[in-house]
Amino acid sequence: MTMTSDRPTVTTGPDIERLRAGADAIRSIGERSDRLRRLEEHLRAHEAEYAEALASDLGKSATEAWSTEIGFVIGQSRYARRHLREWTRPRRVALPAVARPGRARVIPTPVGVVCVVAPWNYPLNLALAPAVAALAAGNAVVVKPSELAPATSALIERHLPDVLGRDICDVVTGGAEITSALLAERFDHIFYTGGGRVGRIVMEAAARHLTPVTLELGGRSPAIVCSDADLAVTARRIVWGKFINAGQTCVAPDHVIVEREVADRLTALIRSEIERAFGEDPSESPDYGRIINGHHVERLSRLIANSGAAEVIGGRIDPATRYVEPTILVEPDPTSEVLSEEIFGPLLPVLAVDDLDATLDSIRRGPTPLAMYVFSSSDDRARAILERVPSGGAVVNHTLLQLAVHELPFGGMGESGHGSYHGRAGFDRLSHLRSVLQRPTRPDPRIAYPPYGRVARSLLRRLTG
Ligand code: NAD
């Protein structure tokens, strides 16, 4: 990478034409499977090394490092391998009378070179899971991990090209400038995960080459708790989903909206669940992570200070160790920043509402959240809420668990992004679904071609439209 006077250009960056040609090497299912298996074996063999990097970047426990990062990627890869034959098989479609006789098929074909731009919060998962989808679909890949998770980024750079093969994989590291230069290249798909501000930059860069993009963005995913919910289980599942990775999860429940009659009970239960999970002093818990950097610690500290909450439960911060205590903000000021921006940290506002429907309508008018969590013991009530408010994905009576289901496409809508992946959705997203119609040359009735007589006209009218 070098700088010219006005615009940085990638001069030592990935050789995209070489990678595009390299993708020919993984046309066969067997070759794709082999490369994916190599990745799985590598991750298993180097689990401790990756866990250490994740602990250094985010204070992740070995358990979280496995379940949400290393093991998650292995699971995605194994699932893809097991289904490759089925996914790649041409999909036969029915022929309308006008196109008979013949054979119509949709054939998934590789797109070429996929550029994966990843964020820092799940620095391994969000760099490698899209790469797995790209590879399964038969593409070469350029991975740009986040500079804000330097230990994990360095490991990806050191190992990935050799593990997957330098013919089909390259890794570029660096910050905004390097990424901008990288995005000026002509890729066949750009797969970006991160915030909406950069998402817009990515889309603009992609427009130059008409490159398709997938944007996996964020947003304020609400947890909506109805008065008929099982409050003990609800509290436990909200605490689990909120404070995993110290709240730095794109689909974490951002805030809780609860019907007023059960608000105090729920708050008390959340408080005791936090203590049960992380002890009296969560800074000593081996299962509680750290904030990515000082800038975000400061941001979260400001959010607490300006929240105008009626009560702050928790709130201890140690900038030196990037520790922010799991914190409940009871009834923050409705105009505060903590209620208007994605929190992306371990602060949990709890808002009691008298008229849940009115609150749901106001969520619907705002940016579409990436996820929504509804807690109710009534299926009808939960369904009515899901119908009223759109979101990228939704879970009834749990949090985050949508990610464990390979066949649930994962992605947002509107402000939370577009395009989904995981399982077959990822394979389809990074394939071109090519339509192929094959016809025999005979019969070839003359009547189907101009000049159209009266019979031909009436036949064509009946067979089309
Ligand atoms: P980040 O700062 O790590 O940025 C993401 C990527 O964009 C990095 O690789 C970075 O190098 C690159 N980048 C930064 N500035 C750039 C610029 N000016 N031009 C080009 N590239 C640039 O991550 P972030 O944006 O802080 O990530 C947090 C956000 O990501 C949150 O909003 C979160 O909700 C969202 N997120 C979404 C998902 C999802 O799957 N939908 C997952 C994780 C995070």
What would your notes on this structure say?
The chain is an alpha/beta fold. The chain has two domains: 16-217 and 415-434, Aldehyde Dehydrogenase, Chain A, domain 1 (3-Layer(aba) Sandwich); 222-408, Aldehyde Dehydrogenase, Chain A, domain 2 (3-Layer(aba) Sandwich), CATH 3.40.309.10. 41% of the residues lie in helices and 18% in strands. The strands form five sheets. Strands 12-15-16-11-10-17-18 form a seven-stranded mixed sheet, with helices on both faces. The chain has a six-stranded mixed sheet with strand order 7-6-5-8-9-19, with helices on both faces. The longest helix has 27 residues, at 62-88. The termini are far apart.
Compile the SSE list and pairings.
Layout (H helix, E strand, L loop, with lengths): L1 E2 L4 E2 L6 H7 L6 H17 L1 H12 L3 H27 L2 E3 L9 E8 L2 E5 L7 H12 L3 E5 L5 H15 L4 E3 L4 H8 L5 E5 L2 H13 L4 E4 L5 E4 L5 H13 L11 E5 L3 H16 L15 H12 L5 E3 L3 E2 L4 E2 L2 E4 L16 E7 L2 H10 L5 E5 L3 H10 L4 E4 L20 E2 L4 H7 L1 E8 L15 H10 L2
Parallel strand pairs: 5-6, 5-8, 6-7, 8-9, 10-11, 10-17, 11-16, 15-16, 17-18
Antiparallel strand pairs: 1-2, 3-4, 4-20, 9-19, 12-15, 13-14
Helix pairs in contact: 2-4, 3-4, 3-6, 4-5, 4-14, 5-14, 9-10
The site of nicotinamide-adenine-dinucleotide (NAD) has 28 residues, from helix 7 and helix 8.
